[in-house]
């Protein structure tokens, strides 16, 4: 049965082009390829139009790589956006977690009750155009660990973005913080042809009960909505993590480079249609409400 209930988008962005150097300046390599069509404002009104047309009723904004000196401005802006529109429902901020960040993290928490966590993109790949982190072993940096202790103290979660080759180190990091929820972005970022390494890494992470997986971003490397890929990722995630540890998100407007919101949401509905109705509701709504404390 195809899911028809309310949907929580657990991963999306909005932005003003001039706030982001990677949009307003010269194009830079990104894991999702060329991005000229989204080098423009993508404001909350456009997102809400996209989202509500596809059945989305709540959403989680994820940071968009504002310049690090301006991460407090990002939080202030999202607070103003929410006050004016009621969207997003929750916010994931950013900070430089490879230098002492306690002051910044606590300041963000004091600025807005919407904050639920932070993301520092840690993904590193042998292909330079896929790299964001400065080095492949960044997950083992003791400064990162000290900052994650602050994240846990704040009652937040950490958005974990890594490639399969980094998942052994990621599992070590996660195990060191059993009281901190780690949300694995884009289901571990499977690149076609790296299926075996991806499954092995996902199996390692699934052993840690404090890891939750986002079913997001599967157009990143193929630049289309691929039903076969969605089914592969869905089946593997549900086998290893179970339906209580998976949640849906759109990754808009990145995925807007190759699809529309209704097309994307319908493809995920089809991928999950074989599950019992209750489990579909968990993945499309209830898990995100629990993980991001959307009822707080």
Polypeptide structure, described:
The protein has 296 residues and is α/β, with parallel strands linked by helices. It has helices at residues 21-24, 44-52, 71-85, 102-111, 142-153, 167-175, 195-206, 227-241, 261-272, 277-291; strands at 7-12, 56-62, 90-93, 115-119, 157-160, 182-184, 211-215, 246-248. Strands 1-2-3-4-5-6-7-8 form an 8-stranded parallel beta sheet. The mean pLDDT is 96. This is Amidohydrolase family protein.
In short:
InterPro entries: Amidohydro-rel, Metal_Hydrolase, Metallo-dep_Lactonases. The protein is of the alpha/beta class and 296 residues long. It contains ten helices and eight strands.
Beta-strand proportion: 5-15%
Q: What count of helical segments does DSSP give?
A: 10
Helix content: 25-40%
Secondary-structure content class:
alpha/beta
Largest sheet: 8 strands, parallel
SSE order, one letter for each helix or strand = EHHEHEHEHEHEHEHEHH
Unreliable stretches: none
- Average predicted confidence as pLDDT: 96
- Major sheet: arrangement of strands: 1-2-3-4-5-6-7-8
Rg, rounded, reads 18 Å
Protein name: Amidohydrolase family protein
InterPro entries: Amidohydro-rel (IPR006680), Metal_Hydrolase (IPR032466), Metallo-dep_Lactonases (IPR052350)
Pfam family, one: Amidohydro_2
Family: Belongs to the metallo-dependent hydrolases superfamily.
